[in-house]
Amino acid sequence: MSGDRKAPIYPPPALVLAMLRAARDLTQHRRPPYWIPVDTVMERLATKDREPVDRAIRYAVSHKLFKAIGRSPKSVVVTTNGIRLAKNIDKRQTAPQRTPR
Questions:
Q1: Into which CATH architecture does domain 11-92 fall?
Q2: 76 in Cβ contact with 27 (< 8 Å)
Q3: Could you tell me if 56 and 47 are in contact, meaning their C-beta atoms sit under 8 angstroms apart?
Q4: Would the pTM count as exceeding 0.85?
Q5: What is the CB neighbour count within 10 angstroms for residue 54?
Q6: What do you get for the CA distance between the two ends of the chain, in Å?
């Protein structure tokens, strides 16, 4: 019975969200599969440190937000789950803020 339970979903780390947004922008919102070079995503994020990027990719792959091949992938693709998350984040950021009364 314990195998039927889903693991709790925690908010993704900020770098994963930034990479997800950058990858979506770079694909010009095309549907998957559309592979994007990791170096291009890193340029968009203005980072040269590959280690945290690789960790973020592994996190995103394990949560089915990206697909990638290899331990230090050269390219990633945003999955439909990743697209859905990116759209939800964009909606939340563009929604008008409520002011308490």
A1: Orthogonal Bundle (1.10)
A2: no
A3: no
A4: no
A5: 16
A6: 47
Helices 50-62 and 14-26: crossing angle in degrees, nearest 10, is: 90
Name the residue among 9, 24, 15, 11 with its Cα closest to residue 86: 24
What sign for the dihedral angle of Cα 90, 29, 46, 13?
A: positive
The Cα 31–Cα 50 span in angstroms is 26
Q: Could you tell me the residue ranges of all domains in the chain?
A: 11-92
Task: Select from 55, 28, 59, 53 the least CA-distant residue to 41.
Answer: 53
pLDDT tens sequence across 41-93 = 999 999 898 999 999 999 999 999 999 988 889 999 988 888 888 877 767 66
Q: Give 57's contacts (C-beta < 8 A, 6+ positions apart).
A: 19, 38, 66, 68, 73, 76
Strand spans (E) along 2-49: 36-37
Tokens of 48: 């040269």
